[in-house]
Amino acid sequence: MNNEPKVLACVDQSPYADNVTDAAAWAALRMGAPLELLHVIDRQEGAAPVTDHRGVRPFDAD
Asked: What is the pLDDT of residues 3-60, one digit of tens each?
């Protein structure tokens, strides 16, 4: 497992993506760390809903 620090920026097609990318690049340069971008894609219209929730726990579960 690689324990070296890296900067991960999650972007989508929102108007904020450019600012997030710029800030992440600045942070990666300051840290001397690699930058990874994770592009989040919205669910398409008409996609089948997920109905299998067997692994899902509520937030207040102990």
From this structure: 889 999 999 989 999 999 999 999 999 999 999 999 988 766 666 666 766 766 666 6
CA gyration radius, the chain: 17
- DSSP helix/strand/coil, 24: helix
How do the domains of the chain map onto residue ranges? Answer: 7-39
Collapsed DSSP state (helix, strand, coil) of residue 22: helix
Type of residue found at 7 = V
Q: Which two tokens stand for residue 44?
A: 């398409």
Q: Which two tokens stand for residue 43?
A: 């669910």
In single-letter form, the type of residue at position 45 comes to: E
